[in-house]
Design a protein that fits this description.
Strands 1, 10, 11, 12, 13, 14, 15, 16 and 17 form a nine-stranded mixed beta sheet that branches. This protein has an eight-stranded parallel beta sheet with strand order 2-9-8-7-6-5-4-3. The protein is of the alpha/beta class. It is elongated and about 70 Å long. The longest helix is centred in the middle third of the chain and has 24 residues.
Length: 366
């Protein structure tokens, strides 16, 4: 399918596979998340990892977001080149080439980076000084995920070192409670999220007592929004994936108020047996692992395998009516690993195409 098909084209007229977005559900999710963050007294800096689209980022800004979050310098370049100046790169950065690119980016926008070690901060500072710019910095705090993030007790020393660097501007801290997204018991999850984010509260207090700037305390994922919004110290939430209402967030993370909005339109390409159908959409089209896929409107059909190019269905009595050439929709369980497989998301109002949203941030790995 061309990235610029005719607006108003019916969904069933599309070639497949096609990555489809229900705009009514999508906009309801945006409103829910924006209102949730606003009512909690926080600012919203939604992560772009699920959509990779400056057009969607602009829509979120119009809904009240203060900026965008991403994970790579190259993704930040895409957003800033699209006119979105306030971009948090919520990941540590290393390597001379990336440092120079980041410094150059400071001429075009106002990126914020994260550091958890002086050996990251030093080369970035040097690149910024060479280019005559300053870059904003958050100290990345380990709040229990044990991935990146400095030990909370060591954060003051790193912050003080950063504050002395002419090419860097210390603006606060961040942490990520990603290790708690899938805690099944919601009372236990509430307690664990509260305790993890309380680490940021403690560190921010220590920053202020040492005269260190901590205007930004950034955290939060869509899978913990119901609890992270309650954290007192947090100034901004990065929760962004919920705009698509992925079943992962609804079913696994138990987040309320969201509606599933993404699907893959697929074609029945083979009917090798009465109880079996094969679709033209496999792992090169969608990601089935984080959350199980499901089918729209075929309650007695089950997905039994997903291969590189094929999805195999076991059909019950009702779904055996499917014929070669028929089109069906697979509900996307988790957008983050599906969006990166597609050049664009096709937005439908009802069954008519309204907008094409290019995923310009896909493939930006550096």
């Amino acid at each position: 399918m061309s990235m610029s098909p005719t607006r108003g084209l019916p969904k069933l007229a599309f070639d497949t596979p096609a990555y489809c977005l229900d705009l009514d559900r999508f906009e309801a999710n945006i409103a829910y998340m924006a209102d949730t963050v606003r009512q909690a007294g926080k600012q919203w800096r939604p992560h772009s990892k699920g959509h990779k689209s400056p057009a969607i980022a602009w829509k979120l800004l119009r809904a009240g977001a203060i900026g965008v979050t991403c994970a790579k310098v190259s993704e930040a370049e895409v957003m800033i080149q699209a006119g979105i100046e306030d971009v948090l790169i919520a990941n540590v950065i290393a390597g001379e080439i990336k440092c120079e690119r980041l410094a150059s980016l400071c001429r075009w926008g106002r990126p914020i980076i994260c550091c958890d070690h002086i050996d990251q901060a030093g080369p970035i500072d040097a690149a910024c000084r060479r280019q005559g710019v300053r870059c904003r910095v958050l100290v990345d705090i380990n709040i229990g995920m044990n991935r990146t993030g400095i030990n909370p007790d060591d954060a003051i020393g790193l912050a003080q070192a950063i504050e002395k660097m002419q090419g860097l501007e210390l603006v606060g801290i961040m942490g990520y409670e990603g290790h708690l997204m899938e805690v099944p018991d919601q009372d236990e999850k509430r307690t664990k999220v509260r305790d993890a984010l309380a680490v940021l509260d403690s560190v921010s207090d220590r920053f202020r007592k040492h005269g260190l700037n901590c205007e930004i305390v950034s955290a939060g994922g869509s899978g913990s929004l119901a609890f992270s919004k309650q954290a007192q110290a947090i100034t901004e939430l990065q929760s962004g994936g919920g705009i698509f209402g992925d079943p992962y967030y609804v079913n696994t993370c138990k987040q309320p108020g969201l509606q599933s909005a993404l699907s893959i339109l697929a074609t029945v390409s083979s009917r090798p047996a009465p109880d079996r159908a094969v679709l033209d959409s496999g792992r090169k089209t969608l990601h089935p692992d984080t959350h199980p896929l499901s089918l729209k409107g075929l309650p007695d059909a089950a997905i039994v395998s997903v291969n590189a190019e094929h999805c195999v269905l076991k059909l019950g009595p009702e779904s055996q009516r499917l014929k070669i050439g028929d089109k069906v929709e697979l509900v996307v369980g988790y957008a983050d690993f599906t969006t990166i497989l597609h050049e664009a998301i096709y937005g439908f109002r009802g069954d008519k195409l309204e907008v094409v949203l290019p995923t310009l941030g896909r493939g930006k790995l550096q």
